[in-house]
Amino acid sequence: MEGKGRKKELLEKAYELGFEYEKTYKGCSQCVIAAIQDTLDIRDDSVFKAATGLAGGGGLTGIGLCGGYAGGVMVLSQLLGRERSIFDDPERVRFRSFDLAKQLADEFIREFGTIICRDIQIKKFGRPYYLRDPEDFNKFEEAGGHDDKCTDVVGKAAQMAVKIILDEGLVPLK
Fold first, then answer.
1. Domain assignments of the chain as residue spans, ordered by start
2. Do the beta carbons of residue 68 and residue 29 sit within 8 Å?
3. Fewer C-beta within 10 Å: the chain N or C terminus?
4. Contacts (Cβ under 8 Å, ≥6 apart) of 5
């Protein structure tokens, strides 16, 4: 398949996997990571595991970064990040990674107006939810949290990150 057609196919796959993983398994940060890694065949279970506590704005608090954004940044850094064995980073790899994270933040801001979980909830639902509270979590679910709201955010986050990865040539287009 030609490059543009293949890229389009991968972007669609990233969205679909992100949407379905969030609908099925929940945990926005891990669902974004799984969708990106599965789309591009770059699985790294330690990166997936490390994202566990980032869901729902961090610990399901809503007050931190969107887990979808955080998961996307984690995979970008998986592909272009500072190595512990070269901690002093003489080639300044971390600054290239910062640029990729900023690109993803810019895409999030264009789409959602923010990278903060609570603020995305306000945009998508009209109000924020405290996901640690069972009653508020049920209201979140009834409002479509895992039907079409956060599932869409996760799908778009995976798609945005895959686009950056492909555009930057971090993974060859197969």
1. 3-167
2. yes
3. C
4. none
Residue position matching structure tokens 């945005």 = 160
Closest CA to 13 of 163, 167, 147, 146: 163
Kindly state the tokens that stand for 139.
């209201």
Distance CA 101, CA 87 (A): 19
The H or E element that residue 173 is part of is none
Q: How far is CA 14 from CA 34, 72, 113, 143, 160, in A?
A: 9, 11, 21, 24, 9
Closest CA to 56 of 159, 123, 154, 148: 154
Rounded distance between C-alpha atoms, residue 77 and residue 101, angstroms: 8
Determine which helix (DSSP H) or strand (DSSP E) holds 170, and give its type and residue range.
none
Task: Give the SS3 label for residue 106.
Answer: helix
From CA 34, how far away is CA 68, in angstroms rounded? 11
The three-point CA angle 157-162-164 to 5° equals 100
Beta strand spans in 65-129 (E): none
Collapsing DSSP to helix, strand or coil, 13 comes out as: helix
pTM above 0.90, yes or no: yes
The CA distance from 5 to 167, in Å, is 14
Residue-wise pLDDT tens digits, 117-136: 999 999 999 999 999 999 99
Determine the Cα–Cα distance for residues 63 and 60; give it in Å rounded to an integer: 8
